Predict the 3D structure of the following.
Amino acid sequence: MRYRSARRVPETNRPANWLEDVRLGVPLAGVVSRTVAPTSRPSRALPQDGQKRLASGASWEQERQRDATLNIHLDATLEAIPVRNIWISAAALLVSATSTPAGLPDPSRSAMGLFGQGTSCHYRFRMDGGLDQLTVCVTLRTQFDTPIPDCSTSVTLTPNAGTIAFGTCCPNPQAGVTDFDGTIQFVFDQIGGRGSLDVCATEHCIAEIGVATETIDFTSPDLDASGGHNVVIDLGIWAGCYQPAPYCPWSDYNCDGTVDVLDLGLWAGGIGLECGQTACP
Ligand SMILES: [Ca+2]
């Protein structure tokens, strides 16, 4: 076993097998049991009780006196700092920590997700909500990605240039308050018409800030958005896209690229359904 940080104390000034730590100057008596060979290096005085030497050459007593002097200076320095300045510094730290509005939504950090599309090319709505349900999940966050709870938020289905017909049996827009995670969810169904819609999320708790907008394509058996009435008109709209007539996506309910009897069967599932027959989600 070797002690790389130890060195021998001169033979003449030490007990047998005495080592002294080079870094601390602390005697390691009793640690080493092997025989130490005589040394040719010059000896120095054996440390006396209470006067054991440090590696720097200063005595323990000298070190204690120097520490006491430094403590006195430190105490004097602390006492010289006015208490008022300490309070001002603490208040400055508090203001700094709260200077950024923690609840201001940042659209670039917030998010809106759309779910519930049952086919590849569009949402399919029906008066009883028995087909697709457009589920809109909005999460509000600050610029630091902190969720914003208890924030009034709304989602609106807005017709756009691609909207051919649109009607809904249930409230539009829908509004609510975000939960602990800064999230709120809305469900839209019982919609009639065809074409496309903009899905717009807006927060209202601090300012009217648009969070996100997505565009969806949709269709329904109630192709003219009459609320489920005028079934013959709806059938005429659907048949107007039946081959060899030009293809229309709203008549292709299953999104297989062809308007045929399979689509007619799905359209027929909406016959007899009207607004008000089913509770809104
Ligand atoms: Ca089809």
